[in-house]
Write a structure and sequence with these properties.
Blueprint (H helix, E strand, L loop, with lengths): L2 E5 L5 H11 L5 E5 H14 L6 E7 L3 H11 L6 E5 L3 H12 L8 E5 L9 H14 L3 E3 L5 H8 L4 E4 L18 H7 L3 E4 L1 H4 L4 H13 L14
Parallel strand pairs: 1-2, 1-8, 2-3, 3-4, 4-5, 5-6, 6-7, 7-8
Helix pairs in contact: 3-4, 4-5, 5-6
């Protein structure tokens, strides 16, 4: 079954903890991004609890040596997922994977961000970046819901596919250019979906997260009966 990740896009640790507590029964992970990390650093990540619950979305992108050093510096936080930007290309991703492997079985799973969901792109560009990233050692990719089905077919069942920019039916798109509903993302093969503002800006975040989790639970996986499960 596809899992729910709640994006805690804030600089305020108390606010992030409040959202985390409210959605704990409905979500599998908490996404902490650049905004939160820039304000609070590693201590802020630790304040949100067990690293196994953390998706650290920093989109690392620099020369290979620098990215490898950043990955090593982040290993003590034990995040479950960590993002790199696929635009950094194969050498950078290989260096990141080598650094992550130092943690053994406890290493973070590395996700390559193909193209930001706020940017229009072509499917061919996204597929080329995804295939390159996986060949270089990424465990999966971050992509919009529009590319999920094609990427699942291209990369196979072992690739982790995480889809941000998810909007429940009737929600505002905000600054996301390529949105789909939770049901559509689950049906297309997402392991996890990432939802932020439709939950955190809701009058009742707990209720909003619960409704999305229920929608995911009621959506058959794309290969149900053939062994395919979600996150």
């Amino acid at each position: 079954m596809t899992g729910l990740i709640v994006a805690l896009d804030t600089t305020d640790i108390a606010q992030a903890r409040s959202w985390a507590d409210a959605t704990a029964s409905s979500c599998e992970m908490l996404k902490l991004g650049l905004e939160f990390f820039a304000a609070n650093g590693p201590g802020g990540v630790r304040a949100l609890g067990n690293g196994e619950k953390i998706f650290l979305d920093l989109k690392l992108h620099d020369i290979p040596n620098t990215v490898a050093g950043a990955v090593r510096a982040l290993l003590p936080l034990r995040p479950r997922l960590l993002t790199l930007h696929a635009a950094g290309e194969a050498a950078m991703i290989r260096a990141a994977r080598a650094a992550a492997d130092a943690a053994g079985d406890a290493r973070p799973r590395l996700l390559a961000v193909t193209v930001l969901t706020s940017i229009e792109s072509t499917l061919s560009e996204i597929m080329l970046r995804a295939e390159m990233a996986m060949a270089a050692g990424a465990d999966g990719v971050v992509c919009s819901g529009h590319e999920l089905r094609a990427l699942r077919e291209l990369l196979g069942d072992d690739a982790l596919l995480v889809a941000p920019g998810i909007r429940p039916a009737g929600s505002a798109a905000d600054d996301q250019a390529r949105t789909v509903t939770p049901r559509a993302a689950a049906a297309a093969g997402a392991d996890w979906i990432v939802v932020g503002r439709p939950i955190t800006r809701a009058d009742n975040p707990a209720q909003a997260a619960s409704a999305i989790a229920a929608e995911l639970a009621s959506t058959p996986s794309p290969l149900e009966g053939e062994g395919r499960g979600g996150g």
